[in-house]
Design goal:
The protein has 311 residues and is an alpha/beta fold. It contains 6 helices and 12 strands. Helix content is 23%, strand content 25%. A 6-stranded mixed sheet has the order 3-2-1-10-11-12, with no helix packed on it. A 6-stranded mixed sheet has the order 4-5-6-7-9-8. Helix 5 packs parallel to helix 6.
Length: 311
């Protein structure tokens, strides 16, 4: 019988409320972010919706949970602590893998570890270290969950006001290239997590991944089976063909999810959703089924919205 595992994918939680915005933490970017939250975003992103999705997600009994960033909003110490407490309600560090988003590394912060507070959810295991993964607190990290290797990349960097770009950088890119190639030789399913959409043109200017072309080339050269991302607050799908050095090949399927906290739609952004990704197969022969669950206009309950199969 083929191996089967289910990964739940949550993203862009934007936990509310914002507390602890004292003069010590004032700067131009936080001020503009706070104004935007007060005028608009607090009416879209609500903690009660996140809690409902998490309850539904747990009822589906996934084997592992992937969270692709933006747990918080303007990078305040109290936000990091609240997000850490929330993560504990979602699962243990062995049950949950996390990568930070641009709101999680929002701007400079003194006297607090920031997203480092969540390091337990972003650490390589012993197997990952044997594959050349980074040491604790660095990226990429690598974990093995059954027949799946999770490779966590950090695209979040501090930016100027009005800018939400991401960057991986040459060191992470080189490490990702080596790790993906090495894990691929073992015919293990490679699942990459990143916050920003990884391909050129998937996000608008000043919100995109600035080295997306370089990452796309890494995926094409070394291969991966699946990339999960967030950032755009809407479902997305793309793919990148790759050919492995051993003559194998396939496609890296790129799947983005909607925000997990949206109580109302915002332009092209739908109500809150999450993905259940069912991965089956072995030895390089994989099938992927993606189920979107969440809120739908006119429905009061969380329902299955869409189902698709990828080979």
């Amino acid at each position: 019988m083929p191996d089967t595992m289910t990964i739940a994918h949550l993203t862009d939680v934007h936990l509310s409320p914002i507390v602890g915005f004292t003069p010590r933490h004032w700067n131009a970017k936080r001020a503009l972010g706070f104004i935007n939250w007060q005028r608009k975003r607090q009416h879209i992103h609500q903690r009660s919706i996140v809690d409902r999705l998490v309850t539904d997600m747990k009822a589906q009994a996934p084997d592992h949970i992937a969270i692709t960033g933006d747990l918080i909003n303007i990078g305040l110490p109290a936000e990091y602590e609240a997000a850490h407490a929330w993560l504990a309600t979602v699962g243990t560090p062995s049950d949950v893998s996390l990568v930070p988003g641009n709101h999680d590394i929002y701007t400079t912060l003194r006297g607090h570890p920031g997203h480092g507070r969540w390091n337990a959810y972003m650490q390589s295991d012993a197997w990952g270290l044997s594959q050349g993964a980074a040491a604790s607190g660095s990226f990429p990290y690598v974990r093995r969950i059954g027949s799946i290797a999770i490779i966590g990349l950090c695209s979040a960097v501090p930016t100027a006001p009005g800018i939400a770009t991401g960057r991986i950088g040459p060191e992470q890119l080189d490490a990702a290239r080596r790790i993906l190639a090495k894990v691929g030789q073992e015919r293990i399913f490679r699942l990459v997590m990143i916050h920003h959409p990884p391909l050129p043109g998937q996000s608008r200017v000043r919100h995109d991944l600035t080295d997306a072309a370089a990452l796309a080339q890494v995926l094409a050269d070394s291969g991966a089976e699946l990339v999960l991302h967030g950032h755009n607050h809407r479902p997305m799908a793309a793919r990148v063909p790759w050919t492995g050095g051993s003559g194998t090949g396939g496609h890296a399927h790129i799947i983005g999810a909607a925000s997990a906290s949206a109580v109302k739609s915002n332009g092209t952004e739908p109500l809150a959703r999450y993905n259940l990704v069912r991965i089956s197969g072995r030895h390089g022969q994989w099938q992927i089924e993606v189920r979107q669950r969440g809120l739908q206009l006119g429905q009061s309950e969380i329902i299955e919205i869409e189902r698709s199969s990828l080979v």
